[in-house]
Amino acid sequence: MTAFPRKPALAAALALLAGLLGSPAHAQSAADGQKLAFDRGKGNCLTCHVIKGGDLPGSIGPELKDIKAKYPDRNELVAIVSDEPKRNPQSVMPPFGRNRILTEQEINAIVDFLQTL
């Protein structure tokens, strides 16, 4: 029965390893998201939004800052990027997911980036 006390230690070690491995992946996803957000041919967020570090921003949409505080529920932010007109029919923001402008993976990367602002 000496194996039983080791299971919590193993579980803790695996959780720690998962956390360490998850952080670089999240950072990479956020870096990919920034590239997409600043890409004039793909995400194109700068056309309408001021984003720190971006060149030639637009002023149609709100400045993108303090996003994690404004949208603590990540799913809400994913819904906004995916299909804001569904949530707000008066919005001029393109439905990036519904219109397949961005893939689900690209939307998640952009959300990861937005949450760093």
Could you explain the architecture of this structure?
This protein has 117 residues and is mainly alpha-helical. It contains 4 helices and no strands. It has helices at residues 3-38, 67-70, 74-87, 104-114. Helix 1 (3-38) packs across helix 4. The radius of gyration is 18 Å and the shape is globular. Residues 1-5 and 11-22 have low confidence and may be disordered.
Question: How do the helices and strands line up, and which of them pair or pack?
Answer:
Blueprint: H1 3-38, H2 67-70, H3 74-87, H4 104-114
Question: What's the number of helices?
Answer: 4
Mean pLDDT: 84
Q: How many strand units?
A: 0
Spatial shape: globular
- Distance between the ends: 50 Å
Radius of gyration, taken over Cα atoms and rounded to an integer in Å: 18 Å
Helix proportion range? 55-70%
Unreliable stretches (pLDDT < 50, length at least 5) are 1-5, 11-22
Question: Main traits of this protein?
Answer:
disordered N terminus, globular, 0% strand, mainly alpha, 117 residues
